[in-house]
Structures are given as C-alpha cells and as structure tokens.
Amino acid sequence: MAEHSVRSQVTTALFYGTSSIAIMMVNKIVLTSYGFPSPSFIALCQMIFTLVALYFARALGMVSFPSYSNKVMWQVFPLPLIYLGNLISGLGGTKLISLPMFTLLRRFSILFTMLAEKWMLGIQPGGTVQVSVALMLGGALVAAADDLGFDLVGYTYLLVNDVLTAANGVVLKKKLDSKELGSFGLMYYNCLFSLPLAMLAVWADKEKWQQVQDFDMWHVLGFQVSFLGSCLMGFVLTYSVFLCTHVNSALTTTVIGCLKNILVAYMGMLMVDYVFTWPNFMGINISIFGSLLYSYYKFRSSNSKSNVKTITRKLSRQGWSTISSQTPCFAAVHVVAQK
User: Fold this and answer.
1) Nearest-CA neighbor of 289 among 259, 257, 251?
2) What string of DSSP letters covers 113-180?
3) Phi-psi domain of 184 (left: phi exceeds 0; alpha: psi -120 through 50; beta: other)
4) For 201-246, what is each residue's pLDDT tens digit?
C-alpha cells in the first residue's frame, strides 16, 4: 500500500471532519430552523447532485471509473439499499432530535460495529475499548432519560441509522478492498441504483410530497442557500469519507468522526430545540469523556503498531530478517546499538 505524507493525512482528516460538521449543521437549519417537511426529498436531491457532479467530472477527464455493464449492479449490491436507508434515517433523526442528543445516540453505531466485527470477523475488543464504549453509551442513556425533547420516532430513526451505519462500514470496506469500481465508480453507481428507490420513497408518501410542493419558504434566499448547501455537502461528505479512508485508514476516519461529534454536541446546545437540564448535560459530558478515551486508546494503539513495523523494516534492511515484529525488545536493542 502506498504511503502518504503527513501533510496529506492531516489535510484529508481535517477535510472529512469539517465536511461532516458542515452537513450536520446545514441539514439542521433546513429541516428544523426552516421546517422543511421531507428528509427523503433532501436525500433524493443529494443523490441527483452527486450523480450530475460525477458525470460531468468524468466527461471533463477529472475523474475516471468503469462504464456501466451488467455485472456492475452485482459489484455494488447491497450497498445502495443500505446507503438509502442510512441517508433517510439519518436525515429523519436530524429533523426530530436536538444535535447534542443526535451525536450521543449515534454512539450506538460503535457498539453495533463491535458486535458485527466479533460475529463476522472474530475480533475481540480490548478492555479499554469496552470501558470507553460503556462510558459513551452509559452517558447517552443518562442524557436520554432526562431528554425533555424526547421524540420516539426520532429515536427510532437514529437506532435504525446506527444499525445501517455499522452495516455500511462493513460492506463499504469489502467493496473498496475489491478495487473493482474504484472510489468514484462506487460513489456513482451507488447513487445511480439508489435513485429509483429514493424517488419511490418520496412519491409513496403523498402527504409529504404535497407539503414539499406547498412549502412556503422556496422563495426565501436563506432557505435556497441552505438547501443548495445541503445538496452540495451530501456529495462533499461522501467524497471526504472515501478520501480520508484511502489516505489514512478506516481507523482514522472513525476516530475523526468520533472527535468531531464532541464539537457538534456543544455547538448544538446553542440551537433552539435543545432543552437544558443538569442530568442531560452531565450525561452528554460522560459520553464525551468516553469518546476522548476511545480516541486516545485507538491512536495510541495505532502508533504502537506503526513503531513496531518501522523497527522491523529497519532490521530487515540491515539483514536481521529473522527478528519478527513479535520480538520488539530485541529489535530495540539492535537499533540502539547501531546509533
């Protein structure tokens, strides 16, 4: 795997974090501040924007991906179903729940991912990870127990979103590793095959569709800018996730997503739909502490593995190929002796 510079790693991580915060804020403005009635319609518009952007980018030679063939659908499936459900449930939760509670309940996606990894891959998380996740979820439950803005439908949306986020991560990882379509090809065909389902979802809810047509803010400049911003950021966020995962790792993308939620949680307290109570506030901070512990452990673990690999490469170049990464104490002695 090609190595990337520290500058590109930091830049792509910041790009992803900024994009993720921006789309959450702009979606909140469109759906809550302006009261736009249909998350499904926004999801549809985000897909259309992504398709148009990638189509013209390929026509201009800016990106490349394979042309459509009969096997493309099977290379992408079942990602479009997961993607569409993930998008609609996330937007639905954004509309009905305050941003601090939204970010807390999204922590359950980490639990579902851990369970999926243990079940499908046999990966057992360490004790520190289990403690940090328990703090995140415990804090979320404490905050939810005293959430005066509780909305059952909104909570249901988010729990479904958490399950689909975990599923999306596993499937996306497998699709990217196969390298059959590439990042842009996977983005393009994922949206293309999701589009008919999104159109059906919008058309099936005739009451919401009528509300979209009768929406009285279409002529307001502030809403127009926010709505177009949501469509643009849907594409930008998807691209930033692919880019960050490619240049860094899936681990870094996960940790950055976890850290940016801390900022979103505190920023969301300034929104009009957040109702302050001390138990809710304390639950939020307990969950945030768990997030910091989780992020610290993951980065420390990643750096430790990186250091062992670096020592092993040095030994290999110096003819110590028999020393494996499982014996870092002997490796360290040899490296010191060479200085």
Assistant:
1) 259
2) HHHHHHHHH-PPPPHHHHHHHHHHHHHHHHHHHT-TT--HHHHHHHHHHHHHHHHHHHHHHHHHHHTS
3) alpha
4) 888 888 889 999 999 999 999 999 999 999 999 889 888 877 776 6
CB 19 within 8 A of CB 237: yes
Whether 161 contacts 86, CB under 8 Å: yes
Instruction: State how far the Cα of 78 lies from the Cα of 72, in Å rounded to an integer.
Output: 12
- Is residue 75 within 8 A of residue 181, CB to CB? The reply is yes
DSSP conformational letter for 219: T
CB neighbours of residue 322 within 10 Å: 8
CA distance 323 to 334: 10
pLDDT per position as a tens digit, 208-219: 899 999 999 999
**Helices 182-204, 206-214: inter-axial angle, 10-degree rounding:** 100
Read off the pLDDT of each residue in 275-303 and give the average, rounded to a whole number: 77
CA–CA distance, 245 with 140 (Å, rounded to integer): 27
In this structure, are residues 101 and 264 in contact, taking their beta carbons and an 8 Å threshold?
no
Q: What is the helix, strand, coil percentage profile of the chain, to 5? A: 80, 0, 20
Q: Which tokens sit at 50?
A: 């992504």
- Ranking 37-51, 176-190, 201-215 by mean pLDDT, the lowest is 176-190
Mean pLDDT, residues 66-72 taken together: 82
Q: How many angstroms separate the CA atoms of 252 and 263, rounded? A: 17
More confident residue, 260 or 1: 260
Q: Would you tell me how many other CB atoms lie within 10 Å of the CB of residue 327?
A: 14
Give dist(CA 31, CA 235) in Å, integer: 18
